[in-house]
């Protein structure tokens, strides 16, 4: 699904950025061409995805692929 309307960034792209080492909403924004940094409307969803990914990593530290 499209998360960032301004940049057309999908949840899959965000999860890929997280799997590649992004650790915060700002990291995701840098990795995804500025997503979450224009109008901010998607920022809560991005932050939720960051938290969810962090919880998954806490349960499975070997997690390295996008779900």
Give the helices and strands, then pairings:
Elements: E1 2-4, E2 9-10, H1 11-19, H2 25-31, H3 43-59
Antiparallel strand pairs: 1-2
Helix pairs in contact: 1-3
Molecular structure report:
- This protein is mostly helical and 67 residues long.
- The protein has a single domain (2-59), classed as BFD-like [2Fe-2S]-binding domain (Arc Repressor Mutant, subunit A), CATH 1.10.10.
- The chain is 49% helix and 7% strand.
- The protein contains three helices and two strands.
- It has helices spanning 11-19, 25-31, 43-59, and strands spanning 2-4, 9-10.
- Strands 1-2 form a two-stranded antiparallel ribbon.
- A hairpin with a 4-residue loop joins strand 1 (2-4) and strand 2 (9-10).
- Helix 1 packs across helix 3 (43-59).
- The longest helix has 17 residues, at 43-59.
- It is elongated.
- The mean pLDDT is 92.
Essential attributes:
67 residues; mainly alpha; Arc Repressor Mutant, subunit A; two-stranded antiparallel ribbon; 3 helices; 49% helix
In short:
The protein is built from three helices and two strands. It is mainly alpha-helical. The protein has a single domain (2-59), classed as Arc Repressor Mutant, subunit A (Orthogonal Bundle), CATH 1.10.10.1100.
């Amino acid at each position: 699904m499209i998360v960032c309307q301004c940049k057309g960034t999908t949840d899959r792209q965000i999860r890929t950025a997280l799997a590649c080492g992004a650790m915060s909403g700002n990291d995701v924004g840098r990795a995804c061409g500025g997503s979450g940094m224009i109008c901010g409307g998607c920022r809560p969803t991005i932050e939720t995805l960051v938290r969810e990914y962090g919880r998954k990593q806490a349960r499975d530290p070997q997690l390295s692929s996008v779900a």
